[in-house]
Amino acid sequence: MHWRRRRGRGETEPPWAWQRRERWRGRWGLRRRLTFFFTFVALTAVFLTTWFTLGAVYSALFGDAPRAGGQEGGWWNWRQGAWGDPQFAQARELFGRITGTAFWSGTLAFLLASVAAAVVTRILTRPLVALTDGAKRLEAGERGLRLRVPRSNDELQALTVAFNSLATGLERQEAWRRNLVADIAHDLRTPLAVLRSEIEAMQDGVVPLGGEGLGRLHAQVMLLSKLVDDLRTLSLAESGGLPLRLEVVELEPFLRGVVGMFSPRAAQAGMGLELQLPPSRLSARFDPAQITRVLGNLLDNAVRYAAGPVELSATPHEGGVKLWVRDHGPGLGPEALERVFERFYRGDASRTRAEGSGGSGLGLTIARAIVEAHGGRLEAANHPEGGAVFSLILPPDPPAEAGR
């Protein structure tokens, strides 16, 4: 037996209690309550209309009829008045016919109102029943579910559209989760396989236990460590928990320091790294360490995948600043432009971790998350003269929660 905890209360209840309550809710659901309500309103309207109509007819027929003694007419004349008066008898007969007609008309109106209320409430509650059933099917794990959108341009249509959007979002999130697990497993498999083979070779005496072998083991351990650190940073950035130490930074010395840091990497690849600054002084408020990480990732990608010089520039933009990195390579294809910021997406599938040139596939995703944590945005495009351009736009004032 499965006991349930009552909503909003601390005690639990046995199955028969909540099953009985569910059956009671089924008997007195929204549709029946609305039907009874509309029927009651119709009955009240028919009763009041009939009552006042008969009252007006009665007053017109008997209100002014004299009775014995010269007193005014009224109810007394109806019960005790001039029964032998032919006109009075005709009035009584006419009033009886009117009363009977009003009764049957009211009964017919009541029945028609009940049927109309049942039909209307069924039309109103049918989308809600479908939504309830759809929610239960989603909870049970069914995917690919879409509800028929009502033709009426009202709140029920908007609610159904929102439900279908929710189902689509759940499918997308579930597919993303499966792909994420598969990508993480794939990225962990390569260094773990290398570690296993190296260690087994050392155990079998095939590879001597020396500095070269330990160096290879250390390199694979560092790859694993970097992947774990990247996943943690991405999780913090996307959840709003990445700590940022915001400060006002002069861009010229900051960017010169970034260029000096990555110039040896560019020189090793036989490429130049150029810095272009506006004549006026620029400053912005951001976390220097995190923005250095973003620019380092952009410069590293440019050096890795492009040919020719790499440009790092800064310009004023909408009260803030715009930093952009441009390479002179082939640029980004349509698929790459659309997916370049996705997790574990690598623009050059031929470059692998074994070759030592592949990254974790999280660099650009982390870079965008860091920039968005500053209240800015990171965009990718192709330059008209060739090559790819990554633009980092920082607002004049980061959001208040960015520095928390």
Describe it for me?
Its EC number is 2.7.13.3. By secondary structure, the protein is an alpha+beta fold. The protein folds into 3 domains: 4-142, no CATH class; 166-238, Helix Hairpins (Orthogonal Bundle), CATH 1.10.287.130; 247-403, Heat Shock Protein 90 (2-Layer Sandwich). The protein contains 10 helices and 9 strands. Strands 4-6-7-9-8 form a 5-stranded mixed β-sheet. A two-stranded antiparallel ribbon has the order 1-2. The protein has a two-stranded antiparallel sheet with strand order 3-5. The longest helix is centred in the first third of the chain and has 54 residues, at 86-139. Residues 67-80 and 349-357 have low confidence and may be disordered.
What is the gist of this entry?
With 404 residues, the protein is an alpha+beta fold. The protein contains 10 helices and 9 strands. Helix 5 (155-204) runs antiparallel to helix 6 (211-238) and helix 7 packs parallel to helix 8.
Radius of gyration: 40 Å
Q: Into how many domains do the coordinates divide? A: 3
Mean pLDDT, all residues: 77
**CATH architecture title of the largest domain:** 2-Layer Sandwich
User: Could you say what the CATH topology of the largest domain is called?
Assistant: Heat Shock Protein 90
